[in-house]
Specification:
This protein is an alpha+beta fold. The chain has helices at 10-19, 37-43, 95-102, 141-147, 158-166, 170-177, 202-212, 257-261, 273-281; strands spanning 48-51, 56-57, 63-65, 68-73, 76-78, 109-113, 119-126, 129-136, 235-239, 252-256. The protein is 24% helix and 16% strand.
Length: 303
C-alpha cells in the first residue's frame, strides 16, 4: 500500500498554516542499542558512566556495550586516612565482579571505556571535593585468569604474575579481541567454540540471587514461595539466552522446577526426581469450568 503525499494534502496544509507550523525534515533518532558519535568519542576518552547491569557479557567472557567490546572500572575513588587505593580495570566477568554480584553491589555505577593507552579518567574524592585526572591503572589478574589470556594463571608465581600485569597492553588486547563486535552473530565456529557448560561461579551467583529475591519463583503466574530450607532445592536458576557461561543477573531467571520444565527445550527437567516430589507437594490448582443449564426448547404456538 502506497501512502499519499501528505505535503500535497489541501486540508492538512490549511491546518498547518493555521497553526503557523513550518515543514521540517524528519530525522529518526539513533537506536538505543547503537552508539552515537558522542558516545564513541567518550568511550575512547573519559568513558561512559553506567550501572554494571547495563553491560552484557559475551560468550568469550569479555564485556559488551552497544556493539563495542569495553573495559569496566570504578571511576570515583574516595580518600581514606590520607590514602587513595586505585582500582583495577576489568576485561571480563571475573571472580571479583562475581563477588560484587553476590554482595548485591553490582548495581554500583561503573564506567565503560575503549581507551587503549592504559590511562583512565579517575575522580579522586576528598570530602566534598572531586578532582578529575587521567591515571594509569593495573589490569585485574582475575580477569586475565578468567580469559586464560596468553596462558596467564593465578597459580603462577607472584613474580611471574607481576611481570604479566606490568607488560600487559590494552592495545594488544583490543588488537586480539577487537573493539567492535556484533552480539547477534556467533563468535566461534564448531572447532573453536567453547563448551556450553556452567562456569565455576554459577552456583555461587545463583545462591546469592535466590537469597536476595526471597526464594520465590519469578514466573508471573506462579510466584510460589520456596524459602523454607526443605523447599529451596526446588528453585532453579534458568539461563534466559541458554548460554550457561553468561551469569549476568539479567540472564538468570529464578523458576520453580515445574516452571523450569515448561521452558523451551527443558522438558528433560521432568526426569529430575525432584520434579515428581515437587508436584506431589505443590499440586497445581484444578481448573474448574462453570457449566450453564441448557435452555429449554421454545414453545411452539399456533399463530
Amino acid at each position: 500500500m502506497k501512502l499519499p503525499d501528505f505535503e500535497a494534502d489541501i486540508g492538512l496544509n490549511a491546518l498547518r498554516n493555521a497553526m503557523g507550523a513550518s515543514l521540517r525534515e524528519y530525522n529518526a533518532g539513533p537506536s538505543s542499542d547503537v552508539l552515537t558519535i558522542e558516545e564513541i568519542e567518550r568511550l575512547a576518552g573519559e568513558g561512559i558512566e553506567i550501572p554494571l547491569d547495563d553491560v552484557r557479557v559475551l560468550n568469550d567472557g569479555t564485556h559488551f556495550y552497544k556493539g563495542k567490546r569495553v573495559i569496566v572500572y570504578i571511576r570515583d575513588v574516595a580518600e581514606y586516612g590520607g590514602r587513595i587505593s586505585m582500582p583495577k580495570y576489568h576485561l571480563a566477568m571475573c571472580d571479583t565482579l562475581t563477588k560484587m554480584i553476590e554482595e548485591g553491589r553490582y548495581r554500583k555505577r561503573y564506567v565503560v571505556a575503549t581507551r587503549d593507552d592504559g590511562k583512565f579518567s579517575i575522580q579522586k574524592i576528598r570530602g566534598d571535593l572531586a578532582v578529575r585526572s587521567d591515571e594509569p591503572l593495573r589490569v585485574c589478574q582475575h580477569c586475565l585468569d578468567e580469559l586464560k589470556y596468553r596462558s596467564f594463571s593465578l597459580r603462577l608465581s607472584r613474580a611471574e604474575r607481576d611481570v604479566a600485569v606490568r607488560t600487559f597492553s590494552l592495545k594488544g588486547f583490543f588488537d586480539e579481541f577487537g573493539k567492535s563486535c556484533v552480539w547477534a552473530l556467533p563468535k566461534f565456529d564448531a572447532v573453536h567454540g567453547p563448551t556450553n557448560i556452567y562456569s565455576p561461579q554459577f552456583h555461587r551467583i545463583a545462591k546469592a540471587l535466590k537469597q536476595r529475591k526471597g526464594y520465590r519463583c519469578e514466573q508471573a503466574k506462579c510466584r510460589i514461595d520456596l524459602s523454607h530450607p526443605s523447599h529451596q532445592r526446588f528453585l532453579h536458576a534458568h539461563h534466559v539466552d541458554a548460554d550457561k557461561s553468561d551469569n549476568h543477573p539479567s540472564n538468570i531467571k529464578l523458576l520453580c522446577i515445574r516452571c523450569h520444565a515448561r521452558e523451551f527445550q527443558h522438558s528433560h527437567v521432568k526426569e529430575n526426581p525432584d520434579y515428581a516430589i515437587f508436584c506431589a507437594k505443590f499440586p497445581e490448582p484444578v481448573k474448574t469450568f462453570t457449566t450453564f443449564p441448557t435452555a429449554p426448547p421454545p414453545i411452539e404456538t399456533n399463530a
